[in-house]
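Please produce the structure of this protein holding glycinamide ribonucleotide.
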Amino acid sequence: MKKRVAILISGSGSNMIALAESMRGDHPARPCLVLSNSPLAGGLAKAQALGIPTAVVDHRPHKGDRAGFETELLARIEEAGPDLIALAGFMRVLTGDFVARFEGRMLNIHPSLLPKYKGLDTHARAIAAGDTEAGCTVHEVTAALDDGPILGQARVPILSDDTAETLAARVLPMEHALYPAVLRRLCDGNRAPIYLP
Ligand code: GAR
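Below is the modeled complex.
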Protein backbone atom coordinates (compact mmCIF):
# COMPACT_ATOMS: atom_id res chain seq x y z
CA MET A 1 0.00 0.00 0.00
CA LYS A 2 1.25 3.50 -0.84
CA LYS A 3 2.18 5.82 2.01
CA ARG A 4 0.04 8.93 2.29
CA VAL A 5 1.78 12.30 2.47
CA ALA A 6 0.16 15.55 3.62
CA ILE A 7 2.01 18.67 2.48
CA LEU A 8 1.62 21.92 4.43
CA ILE A 9 2.31 25.21 2.66
CA SER A 10 1.92 28.95 3.17
CA GLY A 11 2.98 30.37 -0.18
CA SER A 12 3.79 29.59 -3.77
CA GLY A 13 4.27 25.89 -3.14
CA SER A 14 7.20 25.17 -5.44
CA ASN A 15 8.57 22.57 -3.01
CA MET A 16 5.08 21.07 -2.73
CA ILE A 17 5.01 20.67 -6.53
CA ALA A 18 8.46 19.08 -6.55
CA LEU A 19 7.30 16.60 -3.91
CA ALA A 20 3.94 15.91 -5.54
CA GLU A 21 5.45 15.39 -8.99
CA SER A 22 7.98 12.97 -7.55
CA MET A 23 5.24 10.76 -6.08
CA ARG A 24 4.32 9.00 -9.28
CA GLY A 25 4.76 5.57 -10.84
CA ASP A 26 6.56 3.12 -8.57
CA HIS A 27 7.14 5.75 -5.86
CA PRO A 28 5.99 4.26 -2.54
CA ALA A 29 3.96 7.37 -1.58
CA ARG A 30 1.20 9.59 -2.88
CA PRO A 31 0.10 13.09 -1.81
CA CYS A 32 -3.18 12.90 0.10
CA LEU A 33 -3.61 16.56 1.07
CA VAL A 34 -2.17 20.02 0.46
CA LEU A 35 -3.10 22.28 3.35
CA SER A 36 -2.40 25.98 3.71
CA ASN A 37 -2.79 28.37 6.63
CA SER A 38 -3.49 31.10 4.08
CA PRO A 39 -6.38 31.13 1.63
CA LEU A 40 -4.17 33.27 -0.63
CA ALA A 41 -1.38 30.70 -1.00
CA GLY A 42 -0.60 30.32 -4.68
CA GLY A 43 0.21 26.66 -4.15
CA LEU A 44 -3.45 25.79 -3.51
CA ALA A 45 -4.53 26.25 -7.13
CA LYS A 46 -1.42 24.38 -8.31
CA ALA A 47 -2.28 21.45 -6.04
CA GLN A 48 -5.85 21.42 -7.33
CA ALA A 49 -4.51 21.39 -10.90
CA LEU A 50 -2.52 18.30 -9.96
CA GLY A 51 -5.69 16.66 -8.62
CA ILE A 52 -4.61 16.75 -4.97
CA PRO A 53 -7.26 17.46 -2.29
CA THR A 54 -6.69 20.85 -0.65
CA ALA A 55 -7.73 22.50 2.60
CA VAL A 56 -7.28 25.87 4.27
CA VAL A 57 -7.03 26.42 8.00
CA ASP A 58 -6.70 30.19 8.22
CA HIS A 59 -4.62 31.12 11.24
CA ARG A 60 -5.92 34.70 11.42
CA PRO A 61 -9.28 34.01 13.15
CA HIS A 62 -7.23 32.18 15.81
CA LYS A 63 -4.98 35.14 16.63
CA GLY A 64 -3.63 34.63 20.16
CA ASP A 65 -5.12 31.12 20.30
CA ARG A 66 -2.56 28.72 18.93
CA ALA A 67 -4.33 25.75 20.54
CA GLY A 68 -7.51 26.61 18.64
CA PHE A 69 -5.61 26.86 15.37
CA GLU A 70 -3.87 23.56 15.95
CA THR A 71 -7.10 21.77 16.91
CA GLU A 72 -8.56 22.71 13.54
CA LEU A 73 -5.31 21.92 11.75
CA LEU A 74 -5.18 18.50 13.38
CA ALA A 75 -8.78 17.75 12.41
CA ARG A 76 -8.14 18.52 8.72
CA ILE A 77 -4.93 16.50 8.74
CA GLU A 78 -6.47 13.49 10.47
CA GLU A 79 -9.34 13.44 7.96
CA ALA A 80 -6.71 12.85 5.29
CA GLY A 81 -5.02 10.07 7.30
CA PRO A 82 -1.40 10.78 6.35
CA ASP A 83 1.53 8.54 7.22
CA LEU A 84 3.93 11.45 6.74
CA ILE A 85 3.64 15.24 6.90
CA ALA A 86 5.94 17.41 4.80
CA LEU A 87 6.20 21.07 5.77
CA ALA A 88 7.03 22.91 2.55
CA GLY A 89 7.28 26.62 3.18
CA PHE A 90 4.74 26.38 6.03
CA MET A 91 5.39 29.57 7.96
CA ARG A 92 3.62 28.86 11.26
CA VAL A 93 5.46 27.64 14.34
CA LEU A 94 3.89 24.45 15.71
CA THR A 95 3.71 23.65 19.43
CA GLY A 96 5.54 20.77 21.03
CA ASP A 97 2.22 19.00 21.69
CA PHE A 98 1.31 19.12 18.02
CA VAL A 99 4.74 18.02 16.85
CA ALA A 100 4.79 15.15 19.36
CA ARG A 101 1.74 13.58 17.67
CA PHE A 102 3.76 13.13 14.51
CA GLU A 103 7.12 12.29 16.01
CA GLY A 104 9.43 10.89 13.37
CA ARG A 105 6.77 11.40 10.70
CA MET A 106 6.99 15.15 10.10
CA LEU A 107 9.64 16.72 7.86
CA ASN A 108 10.59 20.31 7.12
CA ILE A 109 12.74 22.06 4.57
CA HIS A 110 14.65 25.09 5.76
CA PRO A 111 16.67 27.43 3.53
CA SER A 112 19.99 27.30 5.37
CA LEU A 113 22.71 24.87 6.25
CA LEU A 114 21.36 24.02 9.70
CA PRO A 115 22.30 24.41 12.49
CA LYS A 116 23.21 27.81 11.02
CA TYR A 117 20.49 30.43 10.61
CA LYS A 118 17.37 29.03 12.20
CA GLY A 119 14.36 31.28 11.73
CA LEU A 120 13.89 33.92 9.06
CA ASP A 121 16.07 35.89 6.59
CA THR A 122 18.50 33.03 6.27
CA HIS A 123 20.13 34.10 3.01
CA ALA A 124 20.65 37.72 4.07
CA ARG A 125 22.22 36.51 7.32
CA ALA A 126 24.57 34.10 5.51
CA ILE A 127 25.74 36.91 3.19
CA ALA A 128 26.12 39.38 6.08
CA ALA A 129 28.25 36.84 7.96
CA GLY A 130 30.64 36.56 5.00
CA ASP A 131 29.88 32.86 4.47
CA THR A 132 31.18 31.32 1.26
CA GLU A 133 28.40 28.77 0.96
CA ALA A 134 24.71 28.48 1.69
CA GLY A 135 22.06 25.89 1.06
CA CYS A 136 19.08 24.09 2.45
CA THR A 137 18.33 21.35 4.96
CA VAL A 138 15.59 18.75 5.28
CA HIS A 139 15.13 17.63 8.86
CA GLU A 140 12.74 15.81 11.14
CA VAL A 141 10.52 18.26 12.99
CA THR A 142 10.96 18.34 16.75
CA ALA A 143 9.60 20.75 19.35
CA ALA A 144 12.54 23.15 18.92
CA LEU A 145 12.35 25.51 15.92
CA ASP A 146 14.32 24.40 12.84
CA ASP A 147 15.94 21.64 14.83
CA GLY A 148 15.69 17.88 14.73
CA PRO A 149 17.75 15.18 13.03
CA ILE A 150 19.10 16.20 9.64
CA LEU A 151 17.93 14.03 6.75
CA GLY A 152 19.66 15.90 3.95
CA GLN A 153 21.54 19.03 2.94
CA ALA A 154 22.36 20.69 -0.36
CA ARG A 155 25.04 23.36 -0.78
CA VAL A 156 25.60 26.20 -3.22
CA PRO A 157 28.40 28.77 -3.35
CA ILE A 158 27.74 32.35 -2.25
CA LEU A 159 29.07 34.69 -4.96
CA SER A 160 30.61 38.07 -4.20
CA ASP A 161 27.76 39.99 -5.82
CA ASP A 162 24.95 37.88 -4.34
CA THR A 163 21.90 39.46 -2.79
CA ALA A 164 19.43 37.54 -0.64
CA GLU A 165 17.25 37.27 -3.75
CA THR A 166 19.91 35.92 -6.12
CA LEU A 167 21.08 33.48 -3.47
CA ALA A 168 17.51 32.30 -2.81
CA ALA A 169 17.09 31.73 -6.55
CA ARG A 170 20.22 29.54 -6.54
CA VAL A 171 19.16 27.57 -3.47
CA LEU A 172 15.54 26.92 -4.49
CA PRO A 173 16.29 24.44 -7.32
CA MET A 174 18.47 22.55 -4.84
CA GLU A 175 15.50 22.39 -2.47
CA HIS A 176 13.46 20.90 -5.29
CA ALA A 177 16.09 18.20 -5.80
CA LEU A 178 16.79 17.50 -2.14
CA TYR A 179 13.30 17.27 -0.67
CA PRO A 180 11.96 14.58 -3.05
CA ALA A 181 15.21 12.62 -2.67
CA VAL A 182 14.87 12.63 1.12
CA LEU A 183 11.19 11.74 0.98
CA ARG A 184 11.84 8.81 -1.31
CA ARG A 185 14.63 7.49 0.88
CA LEU A 186 12.54 7.91 4.02
CA CYS A 187 9.65 6.01 2.45
CA ASP A 188 12.11 3.17 1.93
CA GLY A 189 12.87 3.29 5.66
CA ASN A 190 16.29 4.94 5.31
CA ARG A 191 16.99 7.97 7.48
CA ALA A 192 20.66 8.30 6.55
CA PRO A 193 21.27 11.90 5.46
CA ILE A 194 21.61 12.75 1.78
CA TYR A 195 24.19 15.38 0.81
CA LEU A 196 23.92 17.22 -2.51
CA PRO A 197 25.62 17.89 -4.82
C1 GAR B 1 11.40 27.71 0.62
O1 GAR B 1 12.59 28.38 0.29
C2 GAR B 1 11.54 27.02 1.98
O2 GAR B 1 12.81 26.52 2.21
C3 GAR B 1 11.23 28.16 2.91
O3 GAR B 1 10.17 28.85 2.31
C4 GAR B 1 10.26 28.72 0.89
C5 GAR B 1 8.95 28.23 0.35
O4 GAR B 1 8.93 28.26 -1.04
N1 GAR B 1 10.88 27.67 4.20
C6 GAR B 1 11.12 28.34 5.32
O5 GAR B 1 11.66 29.42 5.36
C7 GAR B 1 10.67 27.61 6.59
N2 GAR B 1 11.21 28.26 7.73
P1 GAR B 1 7.83 27.41 -1.83
O6 GAR B 1 6.47 27.81 -1.27
O7 GAR B 1 7.99 27.87 -3.25
O8 GAR B 1 8.14 25.96 -1.64
